[in-house]
Design a protein that fits this description.
With about 260 residues, the protein is α/β, with parallel strands linked by helices. It has one domain: 3-Layer(aba) Sandwich (Rossmann fold), CATH 3.40.50.720. The chain is built from nine helices and seven strands; from the N terminus they run βαβαβααβαβαβαααβ. Strands 3-2-1-4-5-6-7 form a seven-stranded parallel beta sheet, with helices on both faces. β1, α1 and β2 form a beta-alpha-beta unit. α5 runs parallel beside α6. The longest helix has 29 residues. It starts with 7 loop residues before the first strand and ends in a 15-residue tail after the last strand. The chain binds NADPH dihydro-nicotinamide-adenine-dinucleotide phosphate and 2-hydroxyethylsulfonic acid. The site of 2-hydroxyethylsulfonic acid has 8 residues, from loops.
């Protein structure tokens, strides 16, 4: 495993699922971690475990990526040692609801757009200038297969992930002359808290999403993120799309009875 000692990795949405698995993967490689989410208690527990096990520096920060002034104030008031971020993993995100567009809930739309698009933009806007100044850094966005193909009832969630896809490509062009890497990791079905959140705590509906298949795990995605982050200096992984073996597209899933 490549060693990332003295590198600082900033992960949004590190309190669960893919973000938490990324924290573990990068901790194992000795990176220092800036971990953000709203559920700060979970981050404190994770920080304590990782510091104890790997002897790395971990800073948990309570952050709602939807709140621009909170993002700006929290990130700009970090101690100097945490301002120099080598790798930003824009992972915080969610789906809410599963409705025909004409029955969709405006609040759900706002929450997805505010988190998945605007939140990613707010964090990136705050972190990227220093990378540009230093001509060094790597942004890894967590997109989705839903950002490549839509699916019935996926409407607004899918639109937010198409936006992430567009932003990834666009940012890469904007920093092309700045020695900064930009990647996206775009998974299919991963069993995390994602579907429980989408279905507002309905565990049965959530578990049906993964019924009859072996879904991806959060660790599978962290593996891909870590791969992107550890290529040779001259290599940029633009995009990784990964699905369970039983999934060919958002709508084509083969399930065992
Ligand atoms: P989880 O629900 O397990 O984790 C989501 C994480 O995002 C949590 O840590 C949550 O933390 C954080 N988060 C959500 N809203 C905010 C917010 N406003 N501010 C800060 N943090 C926030 O889901 P996943 O791990 O599966 O999802 C991670 C990413 O992966 C998302 O972008 C999702 O769209 C994407 N993805 C997921 C797939 C899947 O099938 N699971 C497939 C493809 C992509 P907290 O609530 O503590 O703030
Ligand atoms: C999550 C994958 O297919 O549930 O991005 O939308 S899907």
């Amino acid at each position: 495993m490549k060693n990332l000692k003295n590198k600082t990795v900033f992960i949004t949405g590190a309190s669960a699922g893919i973000g938490k698995a990324c924290a573990l993967a990068f901790a194992e490689a000795d990176a220092d971690l800036l971990l953000a989410a709203r559920r700060i208690e979970r981050l404190h527990e994770l920080a304590e475990a990782l510091t104890g096990k790997y002897g790395i520096k971990v800073k948990p920060i309570k952050l709602d990526v939807r709140n621009h002034s909170e993002v700006k104030n929290t990130l700009s008031s970090l101690e100097d040692e945490w301002k120099d971020i080598d790798i930003l993993i824009n992972n915080a995100g969610l789906a809410r609801g599963y409705n025909k567009i004409y029955e969709g809930k405006i609040d759900d739309w706002e929450e997805m757009i505010d988190t998945n698009i605007k939140g990613l933009l707010y964090v990136t806007r705050q972190v990227l200038p220093k990378m540009v100044e230093q001509q060094r850094g790597h942004i890894i966005n967590i997109g989705s297969v839903a950002g490549h193909e839509t699916y019935p009832l996926g409407n607004v969630y899918s639109a937010t992930k198409f936006a992430v896809n567009a932003l990834t490509k666009s940012i890469r062009m904007d920093v092309l002359d700045k020695n900064i890497k930009v990647s996206t990791v775009d998974p299919g079905l991963v069993e995390t808290e994602f579907s429980v959140v989408r279905f507002f705590g309905d565990e049965e509906k959530a578990s049906n999403v993964y019924k009859g298949i072996i879904p991806l795990t959060a660790e599978d995605i962290a593996d891909a993120v870590f791969f992107c982050a550890t290529r040779a200096e001259h290599v940029n992984i633009n995009e990784v799309i990964l699905t369970p073996l039983a999934q060919a597209s958002p709508t084509m899933v083969i399930r065992k009875q």
